[in-house]
Each structure stands twice: as structure tokens, then as C-alpha cells.
TrEMBL record:
EC number(s) on file: 3.6.5.n1
Annotated organism of origin: Rhodopirellula europaea 6C
InterPro entries according to UniProt: EF-4, EFG_III/V, EFG_V-like, EFTu-like_2, LepA_C_sf, LepA_CTD, LepA_IV, P-loop_NTPase
SMART domains: EFG_C (SM00838)
UniProt catalytic activity: GTP + H2O = GDP + phosphate + H(+)
Name of this chain's protein: Elongation factor 4
Keyword terms, alphabetized: Cell membrane, GTP-binding, Hydrolase, Membrane, Nucleotide-binding, Protein biosynthesis
Listed CDD domains: EF4_II, EF4_III, LepA, lepA_C
Membrane topology per record: Peripheral membrane protein
Gene Ontology MF terms: GTP binding; GTPase activity; ribosome binding; translation elongation factor activity
Class in the EC hierarchy, top level: hydrolase
């Protein structure tokens, strides 16, 4: 039932929960919803803010969610707007848009794990948005909880006051009532003139099969009303407000949302592609409010090829990607043909986890068996004519003679490790061409190492290698810092002189010989013998740097059939014909899809 929301701003608090993965954001959100009576604990599903099937399956929060809670104290009713945000570095842009809609942040740290890489990254992001930070130590019910030490670590690494740290157990609910009072008393009320021209920030969106795009907004100034004509300033599109309201935690329509409030709009928008996170909403008429700062098109950091493992599923894969893009506009895809794998798509993702999640969702929601090529990054190349281009595919890199400047994306990595693993982690980062930028002691025999590392050296397996060389205790967080020139080259693979596009890679010139030899050796072992010698070469431009030879077949495979019964010969030739279907011809050489797979999916 629609209700007029006439909340005065002084009784509104907008805050989010930020933390390292698994430190308890979603569980604490459940407790806050319960303690304010927003949900009763009879009907609730745990982690009710994680509603994407994959979130519940993987136990991680992928999409931000907003919920309005009513909290009564001393006869006054407060509206507490909670935004639960993804903690993973891949979704940093969504975290920053959620922070921009809040005045406060609960900085949650596990009472046993202590400060981790994403704790630091998210705390710095909250400070950049001038949010009031409420330090919270969670899981104090754990046997090995060490809240005093963790409070010390937080002071050393984040400058928080140990006496200000709220100590809670999101599992048992201990300390949650005190935390609610701290939110009311510490987080400032929002400002903004409800009578000014409407200016609202889009901080999230999701797709409802019946109502289309649901746009999450924070009203910065003015008032948005049901039936009003509004404009998305960056997208340039205008829409009528069909429904608006808040989530508590399901949708509760109301007549208006005033400056300071967080809620949702429904405008019969059929595709999430028309809703851009970070966009500004204002009136559709003349003199709209100015666009809010901080809007940024999602930066795809990682690309890979996705191909149906069986050629017939191409159209199914296309339909599945289109369906997924409606609900997750942050990844992009375009058709690509590969002489190795046939028809497929080149996809761009926010990061490695995002790529994994999209691939899993595709395979779950459309049960297509996918082949994924090794992920790579976007390079910035300036040619001899001074023209700079972003290159997403290795085969599009120009020949060496036409390259003036070859730049690669660099990320700043924060690695938090127990002191005994500092040596192995430093060695690993140096092997990945990292430049050390910092070494901070965090107390409790832990340290934070900061390295600038090429993104191409991070995306494939640096996170796993850090986990394995620190027995799982190390944590990694990174953020883009820019592009830097490097001595890079395109390494090509030729079969009897014909370049195999799908096998071209970008690598450091110093690595090219090693990688060329390894790929040539692997491909040689996978290519079947022909009636002639097959030369497998690795080359940089016209310079061959490695060669392997597949010797010619010495005898005719059907020879042993002569004199044998005709059916056996026919069966053998039929088998050969079957085998041919899965072959890709490169010049006069036939290479099996298995051979390409062996090379394409290898991270080397
Ligand atoms: N013992 C104990 N376990 C907790 C507490 N809070 C959360 N947990 C557990 O810690 C794990 C992670 O909790 P989540 O709430 O999913 O953590 P999160 O930060 O939302 O994780 P992401 O959504 O992946 O970022 C779950 O198994 C929770 O049951 C607590 O106060 N005490």
C-alpha cells in the first residue's frame, strides 16, 4: 500500500557496510534487519540481501542492495538506509557508487582474521568519499577472537580509535543494539534542499522480468514523485516514473522520495543497458540540475574468448549472453571468429572474478559447455603515425616495425601477509615484474606489501600463487593506476608458414624465447602426422625464434587393411572422416580443436 514518505532529513541515516570478503557484512545486515523488526527471524532466509542465485551458492555478495529500516528510539523513528556492497576488487566501481550515496560506513573487521587487503582498500575508499567511519570488530564469539589486537591493527593501519571500536557478533546478535545507537549518534544526517531542482544519483540497478529495469537512487536534492517525467542526464533518455519506493527488504511503493532518501524507481525501462550506474537523474524539462561527479563508464580490465565447445551452440551462446547482459551491463561481448575454435565471442569483464562469475552463470543458466581462451588485458599502442589505439586482441597488435610506443595497464597491489611469508611474496612479486612501493608493519606480526605490477602478470594466477605461498593467509587487493610503456611484443605461431591468429599472444620480449619454445613444443606434440613434414614456428614479426617439426607419416594407415575384410577398412576410414570434422585446416595442415585447446587454455 503506497504511503507518503514525509521523513524529515534529521531522522535519516544513510550508511553502508564495507569489509574484506567473508568478514560478515551480509550476516550483520541480517541482524540489523532483525533488530529493527524490518524482518522477523521466522521467515527470513539467511543473507537475505544476497539474492542472486550465484551469490547464495558462492556465499559472496555480487550486487549492491539497499534496504530501508525503521528504528525507534526515545519516541523518535529513524529511517536507516543500509547499502550492502560487494567486497571484491572486481566490483570496486559499484562499491564507490554505493559510498557516494552514504554519509557513513560500518568498517567491519573479523575479530580473528584482523585487517586484510580489502579492509584497507575499502577504508581508504570510504575516507576518499569523506564518510564517517564506524569501526566494528565482528565475530567476537569465536574461540580465538582477539578484539584488542585487531583494534590495535586497525589503529596502526587505518588510524581508527580503539576505544571507538564497536564489538559485535553478527552470528549471535551481541552488540548489535549498541551498534544501532552508534549509527544514529555518529553518522551525520543527509543534507539537501527538498524544494530544489531534482538531482538524484543512480548507484545500482537490476532487472525484474515483469517490471523491467529497477533503478536504485539516492536523492541528493529536490523531490521525485510518482508520475513525474525525469531525465537520465548521461544517457540523455527521458522516462515517466511509473512506481517509486523503498526496499524493506522487498519493494514498498510510496508517493515521493525527498532529498536525503534512498529508494528505487521503475520507469518501464526494458534493458539495463539504458541505466548507467553513476548517472544523474533530474527533471526532463529545461534547466535540469547539473550532473553529479564521479560518473565513470565501467572499465573492462580483462578480456577472453568464449566459444561453444560444440559448433552447433553458437546461437544459443549469443542468446544466453544477451539475456545475461540485460542483468549485468558491466560486461561487454562482441562476435569473434577464431580459425581454431570457430564462431564465438570476445568478452570484456571488470576483473577475473567477474569473468568467472559470468562464465558460471552462463553455464548454469543456459547449460552450454563453454571453451574459454586464456584471459588477456587491453594494451595502449601508439603507431609510427602518432595514432594511439586500445588493443583488446593480441592478433590486432601491429607488426613491430609500426609500433612507436607499447603501453600496458599497471595495477597497485596491496598484499597482507604474516611476517614469515614476506620473503616468498616479495620473490613472487619481483618475478611478476613488480616494483615495490611500500612495506608497512600492521602489528600482530603481519605486514602490508605494496607493489606496482603489470595487470597481465596479475590476472592469471597471482592471487592463487599468493594463497599457496602463504598457506592461505595472504590476501591481495589491487586497483588500476594507469598505463606504462614496456618492451612488449606480439608472439606469433606459424604452421608451415601460415600464422595461426588464435595463438598469438602479447608478452615481454625477454620472455618471448621461453614462451615461443614452450608453445611450439606443446603444439608439435598435439599435431597429428601428415603425409608431409609440418613446421611449427614461433616468431616475432619476421624473426623466427623457435621451431619444431612434426615428421611426415611413414606409411599409409589403411595399408594394413589390404587383403583384410572390406568392413574393417570402411570402419577405419569412417573413423578418420569423423576425426576430420573436429579438425581446423591451417593452410594444408589440419589441427584438432584439442590441440588448440591444449595451447589456448594454458596460462603460460
Ligand atoms: N562465528 C561467527 N561467524 C560469522 C559471524 N558473522 C559472519 N559469520 C560467518 O562468516 C562467513 C561469511 O559471512 P558473510 O556475512 O557472508 O560475509 P560477507 O562479508 O558478506 O562475505 P562476502 O559477501 O563474500 O563479501 C559466513 O559463514 C558467516 O556465517 C559472526 O559474528 N560470528
Amino acid at each position: 500500500m503506497a504511503s507518503k514518505s514525509s521523513r524529515s532529513q534529521e531522522h535519516i541515516r544513510n550508511f553502508c557496510i564495507i569489509a574484506h570478503i567473508d568478514h560478515g557484512k551480509s550476516t550483520l545486515a541480517d541482524r540489523l534487519l532483525e533488530s529493527t523488526g524490518t524482518v522477523d527471524n521466522r521467515g527470513k532466509k539467511t543473507q537475505m540481501l544476497d539474492d542472486l542465485a550465484l551469490e547464495q551458492q558462492r556465499g559472496i555478495t555480487i550486487k549492491a542492495r539497499a534496504v530501508a529500516m525503521r528504528y525507534k528510539r526515545d519516541g523518535v523513528e529513524y529511517e536507516l538506509n543500509l547499502i550492502d556492497t560487494p567486497g571484491h576488487v572486481d566490483f570496486q566501481y559499484e562499491v564507490s557508487r554505493s559510498l557516494a550515496c552514504c554519509e557513513g560506513a560500518l568498517l567491519l573487521v573479523d575479530a580473528f582474521q584482523g585487517v586484510e587487503a580489502q579492509t584497507v582498500a575499502n577504508a581508504f575508499a570510504a575516507m576518499e568519499h569523506d564518510l564517517t567511519i564506524v569501526p566494528v570488530i565482528n565475530k567476537i564469539d569465536l574461540t580465538h577472537a582477539r578484539p584488542d589486537e585487531v583494534a590495535e591493527e586497525m589503529m596502526n593501519s587505518l588510524g581508527t580509535d580503539p576505544d571507538e571500536c564497536k564489538r559485535v557478533s553478527a552470528k549471535t546478535g551481541e552488540g548489535v543494539a549498541t551498534l544501532l545507537d552508534a549509527i544514529v549518534d555518529s553518522v551525520p544526517a543527509p543534507t539537501g534542499d527538498p524544494d530544489a531542482v531534482l538531482q538524484a544519483m543512480v548507484f545500482d540497478s537490476n532487472y525484474d522480468d515483469f517490471r523491467g529495469a529497477i533503478t536504485y537512487i539516492r536523492v541528493m536534492q529536490g523531490t521525485v514523485r510518482k508520475g513525474q517525467k525525469i531525465k537520465f542526464l548521461r544517457a540523455g533518455s527521458t522516462h515517466d516514473v511509473v512506481e517509486l519506493g523503498q526496499f524493506a527488504p522487498s519493494r514498498v511503493p510510496c508517493d515521493e522520495l525527498v532529498a536525503g532518501q534512498v529508494g528505487y524507481l521503475i520507469c518501464n525501462i526494458k534493458s539495463l543497458g539504458d541505466v548507467h550506474i553513476g548517472d544523474t537523474i533530474s527533471i526532463a524539462g529545461n534547466d535540469p540540475a547539473p550532473a553529479l561527479p564521479g560518473y565513470d563508464r565501467p572499465k573492462r580490465m580483462v578480456y577472453c574468448g568464449l566459444f561453444p565447445s560444440d559448433g552447433q551452440d553458437f546461437s544459443e551462446l549469443r542468446d544466453a549472453l544477451e539475456r545475461l547482459a540485460v542483468n549485468d551491463p558491466s560486461f561487454e561481448f562482441e562476435p569473434e571468429t577464431s580459425d581454431a575454435l570457430g564462431f564465438g565471442f570476445r568478452c570484456g569483464f571488470l576483473g577475473l572474478l567477474h569473468m568467472e562469475i559470468v562464465q558460471q552463470r552462463l553455464e548454469q543458466e543456459s547449460d552450454i559447455d563453454l571453451v574459454q581462451t586464456a584471459p588477456n588485458v587491453t594494451y595502449e599502442i601508439t603507431d609510427k603515425r602518432g595514432e594511439t589505439k586500445n588493443i583488446h586482441k593480441p592478433q590486432d597488435v601491429p607488426d613491430p616495425g609500426d609500433i612507436e610506443k607499447f603501453c600496458q595497464p599497471i595495477v597497485r597491489c596491496n598484499v597482507i601477509v604474516p611476517e614469515e611469508y614476506i620473503g616468498p611474496v616479495m620473490k613472487l612479486c619481483q618475478e611478476r615484474r613488480g616494483i615495490q612501493k611500500g612495506h608497512e608493519v600492521l602489528g600482530a606480526s603481519r605486514a602490508m606489501l605494496t607493489y606496482d605490477i603489470p595487470l597481465a602478470e596479475v590476472i592469471y594466477d597471482l592471487h592463487d600463487r599468493i594463497k599457496s605461498c602463504t598457506r592461505g593467509y595472504g590476501t591481495l587487493d589491487y586497483e588500476m593506476v594507469g598505463y606504462e610503456e614496456a618492451d612488449l611484443c606480439r608472439l606469433d605461431i606459424l604452421v608451415n608458414g601460415n600464422r595461426v591468429d588464435a595463438l598469438s599472444v602479447v608478452c615481454h620480449r625477454a620472455d618471448a624465447d621461453r614462451r615461443g619454445r614452450a608453445v611450439a613444443k606443446k603444439l608439435k606434440s598435439e599435431i597429428e602426422r601428415h603425409m608431409f613434414e609440418v613446421a611449427v614456428q614461433a616468431a616475432i614479426g619476421s624473426r623466427v625464434i623457435a621451431r619444431e617439426t612434426v615428421p611426415a607419416m611413414r606409411k599409409n594407415v589403411t595399408a594394413k587393411c589390404y587383403g583384410g575384410d572390406i568392413t574393417r577398412k570402411r570402419k577405419l576410414l569412417q573413423k578418420q572422416k569423423e576425426g576430420k570434422k573436429r579438425m581446423k585446416a591451417v593452410g594444408n595442415v589440419e589441427i584438432s580443436q584439442k590441440a588448440f585447446m591444449a595451447v589456448l587454455t594454458d596460462g603460460e
